[in-house]
């Protein structure tokens, strides 16, 4: 259950990162509000997961989910492009997140 909470925290990070871009520098109120709610939800869920998952595991997994999610959403929603090097490092990031989860005792 704690890992599910951590994944939800990472997904909330993806939401707020995306809506922050859509807020156009916090000039569009609906996106700004979703950004703030997403940030709060992300931090609250991370804090809850961190009660049972070591910080040395929960924080990198949380940021990794947010980073990979932001890359994917940038590709899908904003038609951003990745060069081969960037794609390779994103793959390494995914492998690292999975490795942290598999190797952790929590």
UniProtKB/TrEMBL annotation:
Sorted UniProt keywords: Cell membrane, Membrane, Transmembrane, Transmembrane helix, Transport
Bilayer topology annotation: Multi-pass membrane protein
Transmembrane segments: 27-47, 59-78, 84-102
Keyword Transport: yes
Stored InterPro entries: EmrE-like (IPR037185), Small_drug/metabolite_transptr (IPR000390), Small_multidrug_res (IPR045324)
A Pfam family assignment: Multi_Drug_Res
Family membership: Belongs to the drug/metabolite transporter (DMT) superfamily. Small multidrug resistance (SMR) (TC 2.A.7.1) family.
Protein name: Multidrug efflux SMR transporter
Organism: Lacticaseibacillus pabuli
Taxonomy of the source species: Bacteria, Bacillati, Bacillota, Bacilli, Lactobacillales
């Amino acid at each position: 259950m704690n890992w599910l909470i951590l994944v939800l925290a990472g997904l909330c990070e993806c939401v707020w990162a995306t809506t922050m871009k859509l807020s156009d520098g916090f000039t569009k109120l609906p996106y700004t509000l979703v950004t703030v709610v997403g940030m709060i939800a992300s931090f609250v869920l991370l804090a809850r997961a961190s009660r049972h998952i070591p910080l040395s595991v929960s924080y990198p997994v949380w940021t990794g989910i947010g980073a990979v999610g932001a890359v994917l959403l940038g590709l899908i929603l904003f038609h951003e492009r990745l060069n081969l090097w960037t794609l390779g490092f994103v793959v390494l990031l995914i492998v690292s997140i999975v490795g942290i989860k598999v190797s952790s005792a929590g």
